Predict the structure.
Amino acid sequence: MALRPRLTALITALLLTGCASQPHPAATQARAEPLPDGLRADVAVLETTDLHSNILSYDYYKQKADPTLGFERTVTLIRKAREQFTNSLLFDAGDTIQGSVLADYQAQVQRVDCGEQLAIYKAMDAVGYDGGTIGNHEFNYGLPFLSQVTGTPMNVDGGATQRCAGPHYPLVLANVYSARDGKPIFQPWMIVTRKMAAFTPDGSKLSVPMKIAIIGFAPPPIMQWDKQNLQGKVTVTGVVEAAQKYLPDIQAQHPDLVIAILHGGMSTSPYTPDMENGGWHLAGVPGIDVLLMGHEHTEFPGPRFEHMQDVDDEHGFVRGVPAVMGGFFGKDLGVIRLALVREQGHWTIDKAKTFSQVQPICPSMLIAGKPTVSPNNCVPADPQIKLVVGKVQQAAIDYVNTPIGQSAVRMSTYFADEGDMSALAPVNAAQIDYARNLLQTEHPQLANVPVLGAAAAFRNGFGGADDYTDVQPGPLTLRSAADLYFYPNTLSAVKIDGAKLKAWLEKSAERFNRIDPNADGEQQLINSKYPGFNFDQIQGGISYVIDVSKPVGHRIEKLRYQGKPVQPAQTFVVVTNNYRASGGGRFPGLDGSNIVLASPDGTREILAEWLKAHPSLGASDLPRTSWRFAPLKTRGAVVFTSASDKQAVAESDGLHNVKQVRDNGDGTAVYAIDLSR
């Protein structure tokens, strides 16, 4: 179709405006003829989040390929989306640089130098991003490392003063500030200009510049979770306050779209400035057009948010704002199909034609009539990504295979929720020994106080059938320690009394649903809304019983230390990680104020040294299992899900009341537990 003279002149004028990152609005208006009303443009806003440096489809702990995760497969979806949509933008919502063996290797073992990019950023630059934000786990390795690897000089203690190699896309963060000068440690917002294809009502195609403002937010509780890295160095504000602070400046630039990139999920609880998942409230701030979320390791739109107020969990709207949350570990790609129409001189969102979806790398398929995720139904990996990171990947694998000893016992988390503490016992033993030695020199007044250890199963099936720790009898390597302790936490110890110890255990026991002994049908033992990493199991001479027939807060019974009832005023030192000791998980009595030890040493490294000191690990080296369920005879079955065909593991670890009742066909199975035994 021949273009009308007016449209030809318009295109020429638009091409002359260029593609500057932040054009001066007055100059743009002087050069460009106003765009006509009625123009339409479809823009795909693509999102990754919580990649946690899972670049390749590989399980470092089992040393085998895992096609159900990995950025290299997400890239395949990104390229397909770019083929499908003429216009697209790609953003990342944080928790990017931490979370895999490869990430720890580059941060803690063979640290990248100033001129070298992190592997995850190399991989992301290979596909090309338009922007991103910072998650809570970006702070795990400290501000000096974050400053270096993001190429962001920071006026903070230890911050890089020179610009090192970082990602080739902008990182924005509006709610974290330097304690020295009160300025944001990252650029709080930015406007990027991209050429977009737009269509007139008669079908003529135009190439038009579109100004997209991006603003980023980290979860405010980072000041608790990474207190040892951040205290006195930065300050944090709530996400709503930060948005309200910067939106007037953003609007003064007359952007066509404002996209909020939040490393956080959604809660409709009353808003507070320290809210962890403030997405619902952020969506209500006037001026935000699109919301990208993360942190919760789930998908939106999705059934988890089905009954949330003012949330359309089918089409992907939060309080009328198009939104998406794209899973974790590279398992999914978030996609918002944004339908834009030009009205009264502005781009507006046609909500009737706009929708969000989360595209999985492994689409579910029907197996025995049930939607099931199968490793055989995953998209192929993009071959370019392995070429980019293959060398450092192999170096990380070689490192974690360093031998450190032998074990005569199997340590697994298949049944950690049901009382198998085999994988938690070495963690607690290492923590207790380490703290006892330090207390003698640093706090001799506490040398005779009972020292307990608290640990949780980090790999408990949340990520699928392979997401369990399973260290087989035989040689132990650094990989074994990394499998037993998944996160790069540091060790902390708190001083508490017996009443707070019981409250700690009561909070942990929220992991279980309340079981009605008179119910006829199946009852699920596990409360899926309570994360497994908050189910602390405490050892070191104590014993206790959990009665799942009782309401939350009244489940811990027969709490004893060395056979004697624990008294409310009795003093204990409990060794845990910096996350929990500083308030992570909102456990009663844990807010950082009662920390007596805050070690700079990582719990994983402490565990590795302990394993080296026990080169022939046997059952006698490990603390005894500390808890059991209260006997409860139920009319119907009490069931839970774990990896399939693991009943023999339960039996060998003393759980003779567990039986597999049906296979789900996806590597998992349903088990029944007889609570009366």
Notes: The chain has a mean pLDDT of 92. The CA atoms of residues 153 and 161 lie 5 Å apart. The first helix runs from residue 5 to 15.
